[in-house]
Amino acid sequence: MQALRKVAAQGGVTLEEVPDPKRPEGTDVVVEVAAVGICGSDLHVDDWTPGYEFMTDLLPVTLGHEFAGRVTAVGPDVTQLAVGDRVAVMPAAPCHACPACRAGDSEKCQNKQTLGLYRDGAFAGKVLARASGCLPIPDALDFELAALTEPLAVAATAVRVGGVGQGDRVVVLGPGIIGQAVAIFARLSGAAEVAICGFDDALRLDACRSLGFERLYDLAEDGTRERLMAEMGGADLVFEATGQSISVTDGLALLRMEGILVMLGIHCRDAQFSATDFVRRRLQIRASHSSRRREWTRVIDAMARDPELFRKMISHRLPLNEAVRGFGLAHEKAASKVMIFPN
Ligand SMILES: [Zn+2]
Ligand SMILES: [Zn+2]
Description:
By secondary structure, the protein is α/β, with parallel strands linked by helices. It has two domains: 2-148 and 313-341, Medium-chain alcohol dehydrogenases, catalytic domain (Quinone Oxidoreductase, Chain A, domain 1), CATH 3.90.180; 155-287, Rossmann fold, CATH 3.40.50. Helix content is 30%, strand content 27%. Strands 3, 5, 6, 9, 10, 17 and 18 form a seven-stranded mixed β-sheet that branches. The site of one zinc ion (ZN) has 10 residues, from helix 2.
């Protein structure tokens, strides 16, 4: 089968021929990949920006962690899944050895190993996954929507971490898929106003508009930063979904007294902010990373209720042999979600 892989500790990804996954053992299953999304972290791995050095000893690795498909083989110890089941797959596998895992709270595992980063992922015809990570999807959800579950659950988890409530004024920095999804789940959680900011981001801000958001700011345009501050200053919550260190400074400046900045972008530089202002205004910074199982269930329910809203987040659909072009589109911010169909 073909697979899109990281083969060397330098920039670039490679489409190459690899063997099919071996017969699943124990509680593993083989999933035939129906749809897999290109994620911002895949772009980081492609560029080989700092933060992914842990992959060096594991290469070559097939990328791809946002996916859904059909189970085609099950290991001898699998009881809750059968061949033919349609599933979305939680890509992060707990280690079962760290203190959190041994205490039965594997969602706090410190050594989670994610498919598509630590082990071969889903930019391929088939992928070996663990049965406990497979969530059956309802008939109302087709595979391309089911493949959105992972990034949407990352966003829904961040909205829960921030504690968005009725009437809140919320600013989302970053109009990519994660930012768009944070905005949607903030709105579903009762936020009264949701603003979304980009930087030289006309296409993705248009995507936000099509999702029903009107307070949109392109900070590359003259005077927009001032307009944002005038219209949304004193926000209850700011979500930082850009990975740019300037967003931390901007985000804190937008908050009201005791406001909360939730950081979920992956940063390749350290952030700087005024500690004195931070303390005097009693601001809070919270981190959200990855997702929890209950958020997966919530996201699947939300998509099944309003599939056409979420479908608007998918801007491009490509076969696997055009995945490199898809990476290019995502890099240039010329796409929202690029969905790859390997089979
Ligand atoms: Zn992702
Ligand atoms: Zn663990």
